[in-house]
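MODEL INPUT / OUTPUT PAIR
PAIR INDEX: 1
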Amino acid sequence: MVAPLSAWPWENLGVFKYLLYGPLAAKVLYSWIYEDSIKDLWCLHILVICALRGLIHQLWSSYSTTLFLTRNRRINPEGVDFKQIDREWDWDNFLILHALLAYMACLIFPSLDDLPLWNPKGFITLLFLHVTVSEPLYYWAHRYFHEGYLFTHYHSLHHSSSVTHPYTAGHATFLEHLILCIVIGIPMAASIMMGCGSTSMVYGYVSAFDFLRCLGHSNVEVVPHEVFIKLPFLKYHSLHHTEMGTNFCLFMPLFDAMGNTVNRNSWQLHKKISSDSAKNGRVPDFVFLAHGVDLTSSMHAPFVFRSFASVPFSTRIFLLPLLPVAFLVMLIMWAWSKTFLVSFYNLRGHLHQTWVVPRFGFQYFLPFAMEGINKRIEEAILRADRIGVKVISLAALNKNEALNGGGTLFVEKHPDLKVRVVHGNTLTAAVILNEIPKDVEEVFLTGATSKLGRAIALYLCRRRVRVLMLTLSTERFQKIQREAPADCQNYLVQVTKYQAAQNCKTWIVGKWITPRQQSWAPSGTHFHQFVVPPILAFRRDCTYGDLAAMRLPDDVEGLGSCEYTMERGVVHACHAGGVVHQLEGWTHHEVGAIDVDRIDIVWKAALKHGLRPVSSM
């Protein structure tokens, strides 16, 4: 049975819960449109304050997940996973509650409309009441919520998040936020009743309250140790989530000291994090070197919107107003930015990170931009080599043949690299080949003379599968054909038009094809693909495969963001190829042409380590 006041009354409404702001918004709009002025001014204030509080939490969320700024100042080094993100999805429920209670207060006390904009006495009174009433009230309420029934049925929800995040501050039960509303409300209500309240006091106190709560839950040590010594009220709260018998206070450790509940590790841990912040921190074992795709997908980063990044990317309406900002950021990154860390996870004690080259897809096809892109990739490889990374895997366009020969450029330029450079195309080929039914006798292949196209053609012809290779270059076709065993060469057939595949139901697309070109495929065709971006699903009488990808093992930890359009826990095959390379401890570089003989070896190694093809899910 659910404990009283533990559930939120609107928890089943989903996004429709925001309609609860409707009466406030309607009253403001009605007054604005049909009356000379907004009579119920506090309805507007309540909406603005809620928006401001939401913005404070969002900005703190962005800061705490901007890993290239905070990675060495994190208190708990673990990552926030999908389960925690889902639990905290409705973290903003308390804003609706506080808005409704504030509106009730406005109805009961209409004199609030007469509050002045500024009254310095109110700030002094409010500070005194906060220290003498709110702080001890919160401290003792918090301690009681850690006992028996109250913890089991209420406060355990908040503590289900061991890795704190600014949204964790709002993740609690209905009863707890009712009490928190009292804690916040007493200093403000008392100051107003004493005749020294002001509008700026309400805005300032609520904003400061949320700001400090987010700081305490951010899992990032923001305050330098020297300042912490002088202003000890800027204490840890993150430790309270791992050592629950300590650090109960709101903002002031005074009451923890009086109650003998100060975590003795707080001071030493703070000093250690502050002193180590300038160091490199833990060295990743594996790095996936990604790049931007387009402006809208750039907003899929965890430090933009955490919840949006935790689901596969798709274009959303709310992104459109942000496109000018994204465009400006793109220009700034093009001019000044270097490769940066965007996400991480742990796999069997190994730290895996994703770094991003600050370039977007279209830039890779600008001849004057190629040198700069290669320079950024080279800098990332050399940095990985310098700090001790074991394997660095190149994403999609970062290993473009025309750009750097699939990574060959860097390996030949720096023959003494300790870090292994991997393009991951061997596993990409393996994934595509293992999606093709064993009884298929003929396939149609576009992008046939590319690295992947060549490897797929050579592998299939060994299986006695007839491969219709679409290419206008007889020279390149014959070069690939000569690589095949003599008794298999006749299985490779050059074709120059899409019409040649009008009776073939297995298309492997390695070069983007238009809807018109797709129209030559017979009904029931399945389009396998390794082209970026994926082709348009134009034919309703055909099926379309996703880009080659694999699901990470079940024991992955701290993974909380999706890789572009991939499902949760799924990564591109080139990413997975680097993971396998690192887990196997292979010491060779995987660059340039794909070694066809290693396709089955890499595939078996991937399965051995628990990576699974997405199609088998």
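PAIR INDEX: 2
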Amino acid sequence: MFGRDPWGGPLEISNADSATDDDRSRDLDRAALMRQLDETQQSWLLAGPGDQAGKKKKKYVDLGCVVLDRKIFMWTVGTILGLGVFIGFIMMIVKLVPHKRPPPPPPDQYTQALHKALMFFNAQRSGPLPKHNGVSWRGNSCMKDGLSDSTVRRSLVGGFYDAGDAIKFNYPMAWSMTMLSWSVIEYKAKYEAIGELDHIKELIKWGTDYILKTFNSSADTIDRIVAQVGLGDTSKGSSQPNDHYCWMRPEDIDYKRPVTECHSCSDLASEMAAALAAASIVFKDSKTYSDKLVKGAKALYKFGRLQRGRYSPNGSDQAIFYNSTSYWDEFVWGGAWMYFATGNNSYLTIATAPGMAKHAGAYWFGSPNYGVFTWDDKLPGAQVLLSRLRLFLSPGYPYEEILRTFHNQTDNVMCSYLPLFNSFNFTKGGLIQLNHGGPQPLQYAVNAAFLASLYSDYLEAADTPGWYCGPNFYTTEVLRKFARSQLDYILGKNPLKMSYVVGFGNKYPKRPHHRGASIPHNGVKYGCKGGFKWRETKKANPNALVGAMVAGPDRHDGFKDVRTNYNYTEPTLAANAGLVAALISIADIPTGRYSIDKNTIFSAIPPMFPTPPPPPSAWKP
């Protein structure tokens, strides 16, 4: 296009100049925008479709508050997971590779002594011994007991020999089984922790199996029970061989062993009932056996209540060695155990009858033997046992009055054990003289130690820090201190520095009054009188009667390790039962918040009060 130039030449208008103002304005805006973008962004804008296809776009992960490169994010996550797997692998190796752990603390002296004390019962077994009995010098013995007696004609094989002889006195034997069962009921967790639960249960069953043989245990009503097997009276000058006239190993006995039965023996029957009833709680998980024990206990207690009389008439063998002074305390003791085993209130009614307590000596405060727990007098044990019922279940009316009385009397008995009250004398070495300076004092001391230690555990489990002696308050630790002092004395903390438990410590009796332990186990049979040369010798026993607690020192802390003096050196079943109970009660074996098992003994007792009715259903319009 041409036009006239005002200056004289042609005027040419180009296409570029024909662009509109809007186009020029957009170009200027684009140039300005390009100047504000970086090179990468400019390349995005200017690149054509082909150029962008040749490049990969970066991917990002939006975590909400942070935007991360996806590649970096995946590397980070992978590193963390890999590190976790590596640490887990290292931990697995550490766990699987065996490594030394610090050894547990050594058992205290009471636990060590307990292991040995239980072995004494293995040494006292009669009948066919199990292969794992653990006493190498013992074997099967008295395999015809009962069968050779023309009046009985049934097997009375088994049970335990009483002491250094081979007589089976059922009265102290039954009490021993009751004590062992009581200790298991209260301290089962402790026995289990030290690996002795199966052992002591086996010993208890050995005793209760024998007790079941001594009467018609399948009947509901009986008219006789066996009081003992063997005889020991030599006072009448007879030359008839018996268990005291002869000095023989039980395995070699070839003389007749007569059986003594009784038809009116409330004390023996009630004690045997207590033994079976207590054992039924120990074996409650074995329902068939537990029920069998309960059935036998019911028949025995019924027999004892109906056929009144003492098992030890004057002049009898029983009266010479284990005389019973009364049967009223056995009624209370046996009734309490029957109640715990069955939950039947009729037994508790008998045990808490005011007249029963009076006859049993509950109010004989001036008696020199008040509070002395023995195989003959069970009242102190029954009072502690029934105080337990009041502390934890509190059955209320109509039992509360006598239970409160027993509880208060138990407090008084505990006070009498403390030296400051002068109820009993103590030797200069610290041994309590519960038998007033008489011989064989240790059996009484261990029973008192057990009751004191057990009662302190009852109080603590009931959240009671102590008890009152008159106006003065004493903590439970005072009772434990007393119990420990008696056991410490027995285990060697005495003027002679001698342990009275065979095999415990560095110094202990070497000549216990015991036939089996004193005669060599060499295959030679020594006849009735042939063994006396071993009785008279001053040499130590060839067989160690491990765990036997001997009779003990005199009132001046003196002791003679002489085999011929049974008042110093003879162990007994009943004494060792008390020792075992005392040791397990005071042993430092962690088992939980409380030392005792609060509830197992009550497992057969129904709820004390009626269950409240369920709440009414919700109101519906």
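PAIR 2 NOTE: The radius of gyration is 43 Å.
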